[in-house]
Write a structure and sequence with these properties.
Shape: globular
Number of domains: 2
Order of helices and strands: EHHEEEHHEHEEHEEE
Distance between the termini: 42 Å
Helix content: 25-40%
CATH architecture of the largest domain: 2-Layer Sandwich
Number of helices: 6
């Protein structure tokens, strides 16, 4: 697994790097060498925040945790991602094995309206997938909505969580 450590408001020591390498090797049994992990560290007053994102074959696993130490936060984040993996194990294995979709880059044009407001722009790869795969990805990322290209129609769709543990799908008409 390739590991990238991003630090904000703190210094990454060699001990921390070794700790992350040693702990994240645990996920090699699930993903092998094909995974990319990004660990983001933030420090504010007495709190330490760890965000862990693992990308394997286009499938993202993400968790974040705040604790008094980076080691405690990392342990909590790893437990959370391991729960995600175990909960969706068969779906994920099937998806990783059959992941040969082409990736299309989403480009957001800059408009005059964006200059008037403080807008945070986020870019990500969009790939064709089924609605069920999009819901799985949304749940793995712990988001309330997910944008994807519907493999059946080729159009950009959005799935979202509704009240009462149901999901919604937004499809464009044109």
């Amino acid at each position: 697994m390739k590991i990238l450590i991003v630090s904000k408001q703190t210094e990454v020591t060699n001990d921390l790097k070794e700790l992350f390498d040693r702990k994240l090797k645990k996920f090699d049994k699930f993903f092998g060498e094909s995974a990319d992990a990004t660990v983001t560290l933030k420090e504010r007053k007495n709190d330490k925040k760890v965000e862990l994102t693992i990308n394997v074959g286009g499938t993202l696993f993400r968790a974040e945790e705040t604790a008094p130490s980076f080691q405690t936060a990392l342990d909590s984040v790893m437990s959370s991602i391991e729960r995600q993996i175990r909960k969706n194990k068969t779906r994920i294995q099937k998806r990783i094995r059959s992941n040969d979709f082409a990736k299309a880059a989403a480009e957001l044009p800059e408009s005059e309206e964006e200059k008037e407001f403080d807008v945070r722009v986020k870019e990500f790869d969009i790939k064709p997938m089924s609605t069920d795969e999009a819901i799985l990805q949304m749940n793995l990322l712990d988001h309330s909505f997910f944008v994807f290209e519907n493999e059946a129609t080729g159009k950009i769709n959005v799935v979202y969580k509704r009240e009462g543990n149901s999901y919604g799908l937004i499809e464009p008409v044109k």
